[in-house]
Amino acid sequence: MSVTTDLETLLTVRAIAAEAGVSPQTIYTHFGSKAGVLTGLVDLMDEEAGLPEVMAETARTSDPVELLGLLPRAGRQVRERCGDIVTMLSSGAAVAPEIAATQAEGARRNRAGVDMVIERVRRSGRSVHPQAADIAVALMGAGVHDSLVVDSGWSHDAYEVWLKHTLVTAVLPDEASSIR
Fold it and tell me: Has this prediction a pTM greater than 0.85?
């Protein structure tokens, strides 16, 4: 099934089936429901953005700065590789409860990943801001990304470097001077 940015396609199983070139019954058999299709979309986004690989890297390092640097990489890869889907889900959340639930699932997975990384940073013994996870989630949000990359013309590379520096500065104040 190809991913489309057409919001209308996500509003009915019939439209999803037509876009995929299969019967509606095939969609129900494979996914169970429209909610199942939308959950599959979140799984697809994780794969397309390379999030399993980024998460695997968290197991290979214990350095707090490197761990925090994985968060901007994950955020960048989601926006760069799946930004059309993120935008579609954001637009659709206002009009379709199933799409709102899918967007919430994506946000829940994002928060769980951030919490895991911040917990690993805490276990390193470094001083960590008490609201580190909240800060990271806020800075990694679509609004910050879009303001810098879409509206101001920053490259994804510049965004990722800035976000890493900003996260480290906000979460590990004693490390701020070591980021280049």
Answer: no
